Amino acid sequence: MPIASRQFLPTLPLVTDFAATHPLAQPPAAAGRFAPSPTSALHLGNLRTALAAWLLARSSRRRFVVRIEDLDQARVAAAGNIASTQLRDLETLGIDWDGPVVRQSQRLDLYADAIAGLDTYPCFCTRKEIASAVSAPNEADWRPYPGTCRTLTTSQRAQRATTRSPAIRLASHVDCYHVTDMARGQCRGRVDDLVLIRNDGTPAYNLAVVVDDGLQGVDQVVRARDLWSSAPRQSYVAALLGFDAPTYAHTGLVSAPGGQRLSKSAGAAGLTDLMAAGIERNRIMAWLCRSLGLPEVSDPHDLIGAAGLTPPCPPTLTRPLDPARLDGPLGWWSDAVLSL
Ligand code: GLU
């Protein structure tokens, strides 16, 4: 078990030896990553995050890996062959990566191996049951699983299994965990009995992302701030598996001039659509740079090591996790309004 994990979890005897013993877990050189789900085209918010992730990795001499998070096969199929378009969009912007692109759908055995040593239990609750069992959230969007199925007896489990396949949940031994963000400093956020395997047998995002980041040597996770509340859970699972938790950098969100946040569900345009509509690649690149508070360049390699990548002094005291936008100078940490 890495020493850092012992420091994170001095009292928990539950850490598995997954990270130490898995054949793929040769400690690779440190890496950053971009990990899109191939469920829609990458909009300019996604591409801004990709550029920031690439730049922070390359500027700190890390490898940069790309991982396609394609576990939700129904949504992936509905989107057609969008992963290849996503990769082409990265190339169009001049974002390069190291090694082969990893696809989560080809790594199912790894996720099964990873949970084998964790303290888990089957959960038969439907979404509706969970919604009616949880009390009103005491923090924005925090609705922890109330642990209904944790104490079922063996015969109750057998009986429930006759009508419903269970999800697999982590029996979490903490309700809070620390994370470090490059812009927000040390934060402490909530952890519950999160789902590790969905009830259709698909590994859950919070498991797969941790296993892959750990095995790929990712120690710098750059992604949009709408995923910030997952960080404590992921750091906790990483520590349980014996991985060092990564340092996070949560990028700001991008909204349209009218204020509506760019989102996949709202059908925000991808690079190919924008270019087909006559907006030149260099104009898009210039906006991406500007929105990050960086000089407007055509080749992102010209930005490596640029001034302006370091956020203003993050707080040094541990604070409650707050995913709200950060005000202050423009940078990867700030929100941006699209103006092409
Ligand atoms: N695959 C996730 C997405 O496209 C990102 C996961 C992550 O960066 O942790 O939203």
Can you walk through the features of this model?
This protein has 340 residues and is an alpha/beta fold. Helices cover 31% and strands 16% of the residues. The protein has twelve helices and 13 strands. The protein has a five-stranded parallel β-sheet. Strands 4-5-8 form a three-stranded antiparallel β-sheet. A hairpin with a 3-residue loop joins strand 6 and strand 7. Helix 3 crosses helix 12 and helix 9 crosses helix 10. It starts with a helix and ends with a strand. The N terminus is likely disordered.
Please give the structural blueprint.
Elements: H1 3-8, H2 18-21, E1 31-34, H3 44-59, E2 63-68, H4 73-78, H5 82-93, E3 102-103, H6 108-116, E4 120-123, H7 127-133, H8 154-161, E5 167-170, E6 176-181, E7 185-190, E8 195-197, H9 205-215, E9 218-224, H10 231-241, E10 247-251, E11 254-255, H11 271-276, H12 281-291, E12 319-320, E13 336-337
Parallel strand pairs: 1-2, 1-9, 2-3, 7-12, 9-10, 11-13
Antiparallel strand pairs: 4-5, 5-8, 6-7
Helix pairs in contact: 3-12, 9-10
